[in-house]
Amino acid sequence: MTDEQRLRRVSDIFSALGSPTRLKIVELVSETERPLHIKAVAQVLKKDYAAVYRHVKVLEKSGLVGVYEVGRSRVIYLKNAELVKEFIRIGEKML
């Protein structure tokens, strides 16, 4: 991987975390420490399922979360839970 490719990937991660909604999604999943149905996340956030799903797709593309199907439902989980939690802690320390 070239330096430019590496920096682009890092930029994608920070861009994905740059949305308050996406950050809240990541925070919700990290707090439960287990996969969550996207529908449940939408209900907690009081947002439309389709809008939450679009945010989840951005997080998935950046490599922060994974999505799998359980029956007709989609479930989200953190790929690197400890690293994501550390991102959140670092961000909070900067406040």
If you had to describe this structure to a student in words, what would you say it looks like?
The protein has 5 helices and 3 strands. It is an alpha+beta fold and 95 residues long. It has one domain: Arc Repressor Mutant, subunit A (Orthogonal Bundle), CATH 1.10.10. The protein has a 3-stranded antiparallel beta sheet with strand order 1-3-2. It is globular, with a radius of gyration of 13 Å. The mean pLDDT is 91.
> Regions with pLDDT < 50 over 5+ consecutive residues?
none
Question: The CATH topology is what?
Answer: Arc Repressor Mutant, subunit A
> What's the N-to-C terminus distance?
33 Å
Instruction: Name the overall outline.
Output: globular
**Strand content range:** 5-15%
Second rung of CATH, namely the architecture: Orthogonal Bundle
Largest sheet composition: 3 strands, antiparallel
Structural class: alpha+beta
Order of strands, widest sheet: 1-3-2
Q: What brief labels describe this structure?
A:
about 100 residues, alpha+beta, Arc Repressor Mutant, subunit A, 3-stranded antiparallel beta sheet, 3 strands, about 15% strand, globular
